[in-house]
Amino acid sequence: MSQTKYEPFLTIEIDHAYFNGENQAPISILPTNNTTHFFSRYGLVMKQEQGTIVLFASSTVPLVGLFEKVVQDAEINSLDFEMRTEDVFYRNYTDLPVGSNVSSIYSSAGTLDQIEQESIELLPEFEGVQDFDVIGIIQIEVKDLIKILETKKIAKFISKMEARSTFWQYNVFNLNTLNGLAIVSDSGIRFSGPTEVLFSNGWRGLQFASMELIPCREFYSNSFGLVGNGSLIMKGLPIPSVETMEISLIDAVPIAYSSVFVYL
Known about the structure:
Layout: E1 6-16, E2 27-31, H1 33-42, E3 45-49, E4 52-58, H2 63-72, E5 78-85, H3 90-93, E6 102-107, E7 120-122, E8 124-128, E9 134-141, H4 142-149, E10 155-161, E11 165-173, E12 182-185, E13 191-198, E14 204-210, E15 214-215, E16 224-228, E17 231-234, E18 246-250, E19 253-263
Parallel strand pairs: 1-10, 6-9, 7-10, 11-19
Antiparallel strand pairs: 1-4, 2-5, 3-4, 5-9, 6-8, 11-14, 11-15, 12-16, 13-14, 16-17, 18-19
């Protein structure tokens, strides 16, 4: 008895700028109920890894003809997938509208000008959150899939996610009364300050703030140091964690900050 041979015809990959090392974004791509039923009806098989899915069909199935009939019968307009994550800090390190609960819609509509490229890039549009567990929806229009499969064996899509950028704040408790404190970096990023601030616990400290937005990254190649009394007194200042991101209103505009506390 011969075995059915399956060949890939569609891949969807998530590329998140925050993860600049070996780790992949902790995002799962799951077909909606309607799409799952469609796969089952036509014997399509999905293989999933973190941040990537691949769809397979029997090598004997004429895919273009199959999808043309689907369009003709108005059976299904798009293959829809939910993007889900269990990372509670996803909205901190992802470039979403500041202070808003939104989800991202990645649609193939209007992307066929990229058909000659190896992968077609899907860009997000934002809408209000309907289900907080669903961080986004990927929609591959069947008509778009037909046009791609007429010229290629595999339709490749990539959903690109930008990392959020925040202002950094270093809050220094100068217990040794050092003079001339300043933050230096090999990145060219400059910090204003120090400004004396009073914290909610009653402590007074010195605050340095970055003069530009800094993108969140899992790993940073640049280093930051603290100078005082004319010499480097702390090399390799800690990098703000995405867990510390806060939103402040400046002239009614929400601004994202990431903070670090340093004790001398």
